[in-house]
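Following up on my earlier message about magnesium ion. Here are the inputs again, as you asked, copied directly from the submission form:
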Amino acid sequence: MLTQPENSRAGFVALIGEPNAGKSTLLNRMVGAKVSIVTHKVQTTRARIRGVALEGASQIVFVDTPGLFRPRRRLDRAMVAAAWSGAADADVVVLLIEAHRGLTEGVEAILEALNERAPDRPVALAINKIDRVKSEALLALTEKLNAAYPFTKTFMISAERGHGVDHLREWLAQEVPAGPWLYPEDQIADLPMRMIAAEITREKLTLRLHQELPYQLTVETESWEERKDGTVRIDQLIYVIRDGHKGIVLGNKGETIKAVSQASRAELTEFLGRTVHLFLQVKVRPNWLEERERFSEMGLDFNDGD
Ligand SMILES: Nc1nc2c(ncn2[C@@H]2O[C@H](COP(=O)(O)OP(=O)(O)OP(=O)(O)O)[C@@H](O)[C@H]2O)c(=O)[nH]1
Ligand SMILES: [Mg+2]
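Thanks, got it. Here's what our run produced:
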């Protein structure tokens, strides 16, 4: 156990940006463990997920948020609202943008809203995925973005490879306010295990399924049984909106659900450090996207979707 230093600091750092910018990848790297799921598809993260990192005497609570985009459905609106409230509650905001995409319309819309949504606090720019562009391009992009918004500081990073990430963490450690740590020093996340487990299964589904289907399903952990032999039995429900979707999730002779289950179980076993027995069931629930309980299971506010 570490003892809390006298000059301790602690605060919340919200990671915001367009879908796919690399927010969850950065959170996981900062925390040093996978607490937020990552896919190559947009709109992977649905709720605010906190991950805790220590840097010197500072405890930095990173808040991963859903991507900011123009919402259409109730779920989309609740996600975007969760992202903005993450920014509004934070001591420092980090806006991630993708180096190879630059100042997109989506980024412009975020910059327009920033002052109103999260006024009077430092906003750092993190140009992510620098591994995808030539370094010459970065200087011009930095100038362009800083002309568009008065960022407190600019960082060039690769969340995936780790470039520039230490530098960003050191800076954030000084920016969070002086005060006692907010979490026990050995805590890295504050999401309940049953929710992390559901997210891991949703990640595997999202990686395997195409088009709109990942956006029309949700996963919930129904039961969690610690067994005497030291293993754990986890039962999860996958809600889809149509019979046809159920067929696709199951796959030919059940091969899709089997592959998803194997991949999820392997990751859960590693994460928990003990054997996991995972049971997945697919249920058709045409209206789940309009159900309050589904939103609260995801950590979202149903009324935010109004
Ligand atoms: N080349 C490269 N890819 C990256 C980098 N950081 C993240 N990615 C990839 O970008 C994709 C999106 O990453 P996420 O971390 O899920 O992005 P996000 O911003 O959390 O996305 P949403 O949750 O949908 O808003 C994944 O395929 C990552 O592997 C990076 O530094 N370089
Ligand atoms: Mg994410």
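One observation from looking it over: The chain has a mean pLDDT of 96. Hope that helps, and feel free to reply on this thread.
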